[in-house]
Each structure stands twice: as structure tokens, then as C-alpha cells.
Design a protein that fits this description.
alpha+beta; single chain; seven-stranded mixed beta sheet
């Protein structure tokens, strides 16, 4: 019932460069990682957070943010310099773990589900909040003076980091909302459903700001389901590919399975049922986390950072990631290659369009990935809900370095129901 919540904002200060860099403020929002753990109330594991009072379960939401700040320094004399902030990157992550006793009561399961929904609501707006906080610091000029310019610069950037941290936490009052939700549910244990309690807690503690009227456009996520009937379902799996002694890849066990089922669709939006399950060491799916979400048919493209990014930058974040190999890459790759391909899924031949791009890692920020590069290849088709058929991410590094010389992870269409994407006989 009570939510034990941790909010962390970890900032890594980038090494300033005297060379000109392409200006940018980049927000990288990683998919939320959701898991459920069960425990014996008489013999709980040591890593389970403590329970309070009569609580039987607990949810933990970790909001993680890793920000890097870079600047161009101009030395004036031995004790004076100016630094201009010309690069800010913030990587966001949300990890949610729900701890439930073995054979939990239905009320307890539903209550913890409400805590998860509140955390995801905040995370849905986290990218906009992080960008709004970071952008005013971009282009800021800092006057430095003292016998040790490097120390002065470090202190100045550290001050910026603390200001960003403080403001980010102030604009993410998730603890207040979670506590209010607990109060509403415990005062009205039988009378108020979880969705109503969540909505009331959010309205009272974090109301939606008034938004000016904007011209809305078709949502790509909505269009990806528009031509399919309720009941259509696609299942995706993720896995690592292992490198053999012959320098060839061999498919490894499944690491996770996630599915989408179309519940309903109309001119206003689409209702989807999500299911996400990790797997055990043998690739067998474990009990899934499931929830419903509504995607509106129209949205404000100006509020979506991806809408104004290049296609090469979109490739890094579009669709579910099988791994986190994209962390640390520079968003501008070599030219994108494209082509057509046919992929077989359970006997169905699906015509796809593919895009492939090679990215270099930022060696100044990630020294252990110096001279490594990442290749992202994406296969898509309008004949499949969501549009995704396959995505691979392959990182190649020089031999003898810290990372493995070659690593590849894959997300692929495992099965489909209520869909007939056969395009050739």
C-alpha cells in the first residue's frame, strides 16, 4: 500500500573543450523498466524495502537522471577565462518495482497498481520538464577568475548541476501525490476505485497546467493501429546475440517479451492492452506486468522532441530498445542507408522497408568506448500494428578494449493474432 519512492538525479560533468562543438540540448528518455517481486511475509528477502504499519506491500519508483554538461573555454589571462555552455545531455530512466506478498489480496494488488500508474504519469512528462529546466542554461556564459581556472570551472558547473537537480525535483512532486493517493484509498477503502483515487490525487497535487490552443496532427502511434480491428495482437521478443569463436553471431535466449493487443479504436483514440514480461535464465517468460493505455488520435507535434529531430536521431529512440547500447553515441551518424527486404514470421512473408545508420561514440565523455561504433538497423511495415518488424543494435569496438569487441541485441516480431500480413505467396 505505502509507496517507498526514491528520486535520484545523478549528474556527470563533461570535460570542457576549447574546440567548437555543435550546440545542442538533448533529452534521452529510456523506456520505463517495470517488475514485480513476490516475497514470503514470514521470511522476506533482505533487499525488500521496509513496510510501515499495516502495509502488506510496497512499490519503489526510481527516477534516474544522468546529465552531462560541456562548455567551450576561452582563456583571457593566467587568472581569468570565460566558459560558454554549449552542450547539455540529460538521460532519463524510471525503474518501478512492486513488492507483493505471496498470494496477495486483490485489494492490495489493485492498490499497488495505482502507485505504478502515478509514477508513469510523472515519467510521461519528465522529458518536457527536464528540457524546460536545461534549456535556459544552454549558451550561458560563465566568468571565471582565480589561480586555478579548472577548479573554478568545475565549481561553476557543479553549481549549475545542483540548480538543475533542485528544480527537477521541485517540478516532480511525486512523493506528495503518492502520499495523497494512500490517504484517499485508506479513507475510502471500499468506496473509491483505483482509477478515481489516482485521478483525484493527481488533480489535487499536480494539476495539468493550462495549455494554449494549438493545431493538432495525426499521432503516428494512432495511425499504426488505425487499419486494424479490435483483438489484433502483436508479440515482440528481445534477445542478445552471442559471438562465437568463428566471429559469427549466434542467437541467445530471450531476455524479455512484450505484447500489444488492440482493445478498441475510434476517431478519438486507440485503447491498447500492454503486457511486459522478463524471462528467466533459460528464456522462459515470467509473470507479466499488464496495463491499459489510451493513445489519442491527435497530438501537438511541437511538444514532441522527436518531431523536430533528424531521422538519424529518431532511430536511436524509436520503438522499444532491446538493450542500452545507444547510451553515449553521438546523434549525428554517417549517411542513412535504406532498402527493401522480406522477413518471414511464422510462415508469413512480410514486405518491409529498412533503414540502417552507423553512429560513433563520444570518446571525450565515454573513454572506454573510444573508437567504438554502433549500427542500428530498423525493419518496418504498415502491414503490422506498431509498424515494427525487427530492430538490431550492434556495437563494434577495437580488440583488447574494456567492452566486448562485438555485441548485438535484437527486438523482433515473434507472433501476431488477428492480423494477416502475408504479402507474397
Amino acid at each position: 500500500m505505502r509507496l517507498w519512492f526514491m528520486c535520484m538525479f545523478i549528474l556527470v560533468v563533461g570535460i570542457p573543450s576549447a574546440q567548437s562543438e555543435q550546440p545542442q540540448v538533448e533529452i534521452v528518455k529510456k523506456p520505463a523498466q517495470i517488475s514485480t517481486r513476490y516475497f514470503d511475509p514470514n521470511n522476506p528477502p533482505s533487499d525488500r524495502p521496509p513496510l510501515t504499519g499495516s502495509d502488506e506491500a510496497v512499490s519503489v519508483g526510481d527516477f534516474l537522471s544522468d546529465a552531462s554538461v560541456g562548455g567551450q573555454v576561452i582563456q583571457i589571462d593566467a587568472t581569468h577565462a570565460k566558459a560558454k555552455i554549449n552542450r547539455i545531455t540529460v538521460t532519463l530512466q524510471l525503474n518501478i518495482t512492486t513488492w507483493l506478498p505471496n498470494n496477495p489480496q486483490q485489494w492490495t494488488v489493485e492498490h499497488e497498481e495505482g502507485h505504478r500508474q502515478i509514477s508513469e504519469y510523472y515519467y510521461r512528462n519528465a522529458e518536457m520538464i527536464a528540457r524546460r529546466i536545461a534549456e535556459p542554461y544552454f549558451g550561458k556564459t560563465i566568468d571565471l577568475s582565480g589561480p586555478d581556472i579548472r577548479n573554478e570551472l568545475s565549481a561553476a558547473i557543479d553549481k549549475i548541476a545542483k540548480e538543475i537537480t533542485s528544480e527537477y525535483q521541485r517540478q516532480m512532486p511525486v512523493n506528495t501525490t503518492q502520499e495523497r493517493y494512500d490517504t484517499i484509498r485508506k479513507q475510502n477503502r471500499q468506496e473509491i476505485p483505483v482509477p478515481d483515487a489516482v485521478a483525484q490525487a493527481l488533480k489535487e497535487t499536480y494539476p495539468e497546467p493550462a495549455k494554449p490552443a494549438v493545431a493538432l496532427v495525426d499521432s503516428p502511434e494512432y495511425l499504426a493501429w488505425k487499419n486494424f480491428a479490435p483483438g489484433a495482437k502483436v508479440v515482440y521478443a528481445a534477445r542478445y546475440w552471442n559471438l562465437t569463436s568463428s566471429n559469427k553471431f549466434l542467437a541467445g535466449p530471450t531476455t524479455s517479451v512484450h505484447a500489444y493487443r488492440l482493445q478498441g479504436i475510434n476517431a478519438e483514440g486507440v485503447r491498447l492492452w500492454f503486457s511486459q514480461a522478463p524471462t528467466d535464465r533459460y528464456g522462459r517468460p515470467m509473470p507479466p506486468n499488464e496495463w491499459e493505455e489510451t493513445i489519442p488520435a491527435k497530438y501537438d507535434a511541437n511538444a514532441d522532441p522527436l518531431a523536430n529531430q533528424s531521422r538519424s536521431a529518431q532511430l536511436l529512440t524509436i520503438f522499444h530498445q532491446a538493450g542500452n547500447l545507444e547510451v553515449g553515441v553521438q546523434p549525428d551518424p554517417r549517411p542513412i542507408e535504406t532498402g527493401e527486404d522480406t522477413i518471414e514470421v511464422n510462415g508469413a512473408q512480410i514486405a518491409t522497408h529498412w533503414e540502417s545508420a552507423m553512429y560513433d561514440y563520444d570518446g571525450s565523455m565515454w573513454p572506454n568506448l573510444m573508437n567504438c561504433h554502433l549500427v542500428i538497423k530498423l525493419w518496418t511495415s504498415d502491414a503490422v500494428p506498431t509498424g515494427l518488424v525487427r530492430k538490431t543494435e550492434e556495437r563494434t569496438c577495437p580488440l583488447g578494449g574494456d567492452p566486448l569487441a562485438r555485441v548485438m541485441v535484437e527486438t523482433y516480431l515473434k507472433s501476431f493474432e488477428g492480423v494477416t500480413p502475408v504479402v507474397s505467396q
